[in-house]
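About this split. The held-out portion is used to measure sequence recovery: a designer receives only the structure tokens and must propose an amino acid at every position. Recovery is the fraction of positions where the proposal matches the reference. Here is one held-out target exactly as it appears in the evaluation file.
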């Protein structure tokens, strides 16, 4: 099965980025959106980028459409809708008549399990799989390729071939809530919220300590701001509910308060940090009204690192046992998604002295708002 003709469902940021990537690698691309203005902006971005790259000769292979029947004849339809399951179900229902017999459908399922998406739609179960591209999609190489027991092997192989063609690194994941990256990023960020609430430093202290010890480009609070606190809180709710409400993954009330204040991170110019032109220029001065013991104690950087990475290591072990994921796949996914020089399990081995169980101190039991 050779994939050449691609339909991209939604002209949002991810859809626009994917359409451009597919175009650059010689595919025929049609991108759909209900809103004409969104579609025109998406097309303008792609055309500008292609011309800047001297690849305007490929623009004849690009078409913006507002009629789902134009996806008839596609080899694969890639869905990037950032909306709830009911809205997506309605789109899939309208799309189904135009999915030809051998067309593969790749749905977005970074947080919601693929099984849940299939149960809420009438997509062909044997030809539907999950794509979870990591942001920013143009530069991050990782794609979680999600399959169920019903996924046809030839469809999986075709998807793998396509992803390798566009120079992405696919990791095949057995379907579960949050897959690998969202599932493990959640305790990483939740642990940072708990450190703030315990008074173990300001945002810059926590992020700086993690970067210094780990060699990573971003700390957990910088990561939360980059992803968007509203998106992160919704993802935490969905994964928490899907896994049966485990206490260790309880969504953060502090994060919810920031979302209610409209402080969503980089996209709103304020979250844990203040942003100008996408750069951090200060810490949120209102955090002291949200975090009771903010910055009460500066904990050692090694302690901060172990408090952040320890829960990720434990969750990685739990995830591996639940879906029989290999250590290699877990480590690869987290290194590529997060930019870490090591995966969580490697940190646990190489720095095991930092994860020795310590006696709880007074700052580990402070109450929060």
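Reference sequence for scoring:
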């Amino acid at each position: 099965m050779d994939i050449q003709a691609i339909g991209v469902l939604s002209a949002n940021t991810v859809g626009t980025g994917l359409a451009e990537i597919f175009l650059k690698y010689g595919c025929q691309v049609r991108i759909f959106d209900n809103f004409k203005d969104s579609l025109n902006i998406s097309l303008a971005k792609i055309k500008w980028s292609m011309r800047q790259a001297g690849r305007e000769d490929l623009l004849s292979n690009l078409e913006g459409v507002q009629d789902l029947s134009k996806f008839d004849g596609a080899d694969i339809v890639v869905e990037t809708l950032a909306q709830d399951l009911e809205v997506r179900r309605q789109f899939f229902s309208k799309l189904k008549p135009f999915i030809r017999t051998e067309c593969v459908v790749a749905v977005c399922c970074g947080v919601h399990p693929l099984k849940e998406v299939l149960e809420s739609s009438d997509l062909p179960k044997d030809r539907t799989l999950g794509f979870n591209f990591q942001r920013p999609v143009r530069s991050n190489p990782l794609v979680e390729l999600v399959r169920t027991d019903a996924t046809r092997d030839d469809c999986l192989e075709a998807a793998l071939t396509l992803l390798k063609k566009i120079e992405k690194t696919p990791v095949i994941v057995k379907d579960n809530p949050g897959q690998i990256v969202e599932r493990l990023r959640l305790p990483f960020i939740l642990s940072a919220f708990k450190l703030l609430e315990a008074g173990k430093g300001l945002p810059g202290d926590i992020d700086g300590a993690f970067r210094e010890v780990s060699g990573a480009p971003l700390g957990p609070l910088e990561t939360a701001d980059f992803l968007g606190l509203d998106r992160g809180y919704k993802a935490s709710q969905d994964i928490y509910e899907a896994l049966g409400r485990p206490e260790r993954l309880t969504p953060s009330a502090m994060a919810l308060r920031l979302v209610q204040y409209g402080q969503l991170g980089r996209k709103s110019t304020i979250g844990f940090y203040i942003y100008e032109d996408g750069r951090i220029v200060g810490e949120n001065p209102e955090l002291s009204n949200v975090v009771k013991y903010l910055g009460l104690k500066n904990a050692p950087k090694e302690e901060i690192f172990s408090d952040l990475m320890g829960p990720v290591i434990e969750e990685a072990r739990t995830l591996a046992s639940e879906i029989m994921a290999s250590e290699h796949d877990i480590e690869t996914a987290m290194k590529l998604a997060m930019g870490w020089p090591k995966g969580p399990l490697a940190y646990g081995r190489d720095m095991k002295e930092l994860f020795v169980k310590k006696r709880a101190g007074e700052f580990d039991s402070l109450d929060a708002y």
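Annotator remark: The longest helix spans residues 301-323.
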